[in-house]
Structure formats: structure tokens, C-alpha cells
């Protein structure tokens, strides 16, 4: 199935009303790319490593992206979106450049598009989880690396319950112990246990 990526270049003030317009037009969601994100200070309670690429953010400020199916109504839908955005001027809402671009996307590309947002994460004193496609180098000799290849079935290993479990394993596991990982899913807790010195899992 083919989809159209609708990109709208606008302002912070117009994010909410334009997002609502896009939702009402039938889009299942809206991606907000705000260049101010590059300058934001972030808390990292789980050791997140933020690696935002400036090239992914528009020089024009804010870019909203949504996906609409390619069908016979697409042209009419886009025209209605443009008109609704222009109508925001009636309410003195700054819509900025209000530049709209369209590009075609194959559904197959969506299956891997999320990968660019999954980066290495240091989740405990010694353990870092990294996707298999990232070239990550340990920052210390005692750092332990878990490589995961997450997809539709399993997560990234960075859910708070997983993080807390690994932190507990790191604190309490002793070399040679036997660990049972019940309902293991991706097996990340088993992998962590082996790296920390367990004999079996």
C-alpha cells in the first residue's frame, strides 16, 4: 500500500490547531519536528543517550508530518487541509510559512523507519543496551554491552520495569548463581544475568 507523507512547515503557535485539522482529515497521528528540541535540556534518569541529528529538523522552525493513504480522494483531502489552515488566520493564529509538501512513501519503509530513533542507552552502572545496527564503543573497560535487535514482537529493553530489574540483578547477582527468567520475551534479563556472572538462565 502506498501512502502520502504530508509535511507542513509552520510555527509553535499553530502546532495544536493544525494537528487537530490533520486528525480530522483522517490521519492516524502527527509527527512534530520542532527545532527547539535541539536546545532542550533533558533529564536522563535511566541513562538515556540523546543523539538528535540537526539535519532531521527544518530550518523553518516547526514541521508537522502526517500520512494519508493514496486514493482518489487524496487531492480533495489535501485541499481541505490547506483551506482549514488558512482559516486559522481569522483567529489571529500565526501559521508562519505554511509551506506544504507531499511525498510518496511505501508501507514497507515504515517497518524500519523507527530504527533511527532507537539509540544506545546506559541503563545501569555497567550495562548499556544498544541496537545491533549501531556501532557503539564502550566508554570504560568494565562496561557490559547488550545488543538487541528489537522489532514488532519485542521491545527495546528500556522499559522502566526492565531497567529496574537489570539494576537489581547488577546489585544482587553473584558469580555462579543460577537464574530463571520466566516469560523472558527478548531474553534481555537472561543476557544481563550471564554478563554479570550467572552460570545458567
UniProtKB/TrEMBL annotation:
Swiss-Prot/TrEMBL keywords: Cytoplasm, Methyltransferase, Ribonucleoprotein, Ribosomal protein, S-adenosyl-L-methionine, Transferase
Its Gene Ontology molecular function terms? Answer: protein methyltransferase activity
Gene Ontology biological-process annotations: methylation
**What is a single cellular component term in the Gene Ontology annotation?**
ribosome
The UniProt record lists the keyword Iron-sulfur: no
Q: Which InterPro entries match?
A: Ribosomal_L11_MeTrfase_PrmA, Ribosomal_PrmA_MeTrfase, SAM-dependent_MTases_sf
Q: Which family does it belong to?
A: Belongs to the methyltransferase superfamily. PrmA family.
What protein name is recorded for this chain?
Ribosomal protein L11 methyltransferase
Organism listed in the record: Gracilibacillus boraciitolerans JCM 21714
Amino acid at each position: 500500500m502506498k501512502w502520502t507523507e504530508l509535511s507542513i512547515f509552520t510555527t509553535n503557535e499553530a502546532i495544536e490547531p493544525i494537528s487537530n485539522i490533520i486528525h480530522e482529515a483522517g490521519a492516524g497521528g502527527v509527527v512534530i519536528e520542532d527545532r527547539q528540541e535541539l536546545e532542550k535540556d533533558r533529564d536522563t534518569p535511566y541513562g538515556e543517550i540523546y543523539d538528535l541529528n540537526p539535519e532531521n529538523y527544518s530550518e523553518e522552525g516547526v514541521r508537522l508530518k502526517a500520512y494519508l493513504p493514496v486514493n482518489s480522494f487524496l487531492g480533495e483531502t489535501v485541499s481541505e487541509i490547506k483551506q482549514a489552515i488558512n482559516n486559522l488566520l481569522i483567529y489571529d493564529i500565526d501559521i508562519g510559512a505554511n509551506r506544504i509538501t507531499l511525498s510518496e512513501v511505501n508501507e514497507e519503509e515504515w517497518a524500519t523507519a523507527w530504527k533511527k530513533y532507537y539509540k544506545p542507552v546506559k541503563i545501569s552502572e555497567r550495562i548499556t543496551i544498544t541496537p545491533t545496527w549501531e556501532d557503539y564503543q564502550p566508554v570504560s573497560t568494565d562496561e557490559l554491552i547488550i545488543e538487541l535487535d528489537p522489532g514488532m514482537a519485542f521491545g527495546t529493553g528500556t522499559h522502566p520495569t526492565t531497567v529496574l530489574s537489570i539494576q537489581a540483578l547488577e546489585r544482587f547477582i553473584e558469580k555462579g548463581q543460577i537464574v530463571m527468567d520466566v516469560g523472558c520475551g527478548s531474553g534481555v534479563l537472561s543476557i544481563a544475568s550471564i554478563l554479570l556472572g550467572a552460570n545458567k538462565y
